[in-house]
Amino acid sequence: MPQILVLHGPNLNLLGRRETDIYGTLSLEQINQKLNELAAGLGLELDIKQSNHEGELVEYIQQAYLNHTKGILINAAAYTHTSVAIRDAIAAVKLPAVEVHISNIHRREKFRHKSLIAAVVTGQICGFGVNSYLLGLNALKQLITDT
Ligand code: CA2
Questions:
Q1: Is the pLDDT of residue 146 over 90?
Q2: pTM of the predicted model, to two decimals?
Q3: Test site for ligand 1: of 6, 105, 108, 112, most ligand atoms within 8 A of the Cβ
């Protein structure tokens, strides 16, 4: 089964406990469960990681390449707006990648409008709540099938 790396960035381990008006009430574990259910239906296997550390996220992206992972679904959270290192890692591994965000980053504070990752991923999905992840995984499945 094609393997997909799902990467959650900093503070997403707090989902469902704080800022529920912006990020919803589901916990990260519940989101991962939904992703695993969808993946089973799509015939994909997920390797799901969360880290609060930029370097660790870079390591996961590099390992994905070495493990012959077929695609990356990433919510880099705040690092979306700051991390050249994560951007360079995604560009380096040249894997199909979809950037997702729970909130619509373009309707929020100005500093969230810029994604350093957007230019090196295949596409970005944001603003659909937890559904952004599910839409992103469907998009990745299609990308992998097409290539
Ligand atoms: O909308 C998204 O998915 C974001 O990637 C979430 C990030 C934010 O920095 C991005 O601009 C947009 C923040 C994730 C923090 O998640 C929390 C969850 C619960 C409580 C506090 C933070």
A1: no
A2: 0.97
A3: 105
Give the phi and the psi of residue 19 in degrees, each rounded to 5: 50, 45
23 Cβ closer than 6 Å to some ligand 1 atom: yes
Question: What CATH number is associated with residue 140?
Answer: 3.40.50.9100
Cβ atoms of 97 and 121 within 8 Å: the answer is yes
Measured from the Cα of 76, ligand 1's closest atom is 5
Query: Are 80 and 101 in contact, with CB atoms under 8 Å apart?
Result: yes
Cβ-based neighbours of 126, under 8 Å, separated by 6 or more: 99, 100, 101, 102, 103, 104, 105, 106, 132
Our count of domains for the chain comes to 1
Residue 125: which H helix or E strand, with range? Answer: strand 123-126
With H, G, I as helix, E, B as strand and everything else as coil, classify residue 144.
helix
pLDDT in tens, 41-88: 999 999 999 999 999 999 999 999 999 999 999 999 999 999 999 999
Domain that holds residue 124: 3-146
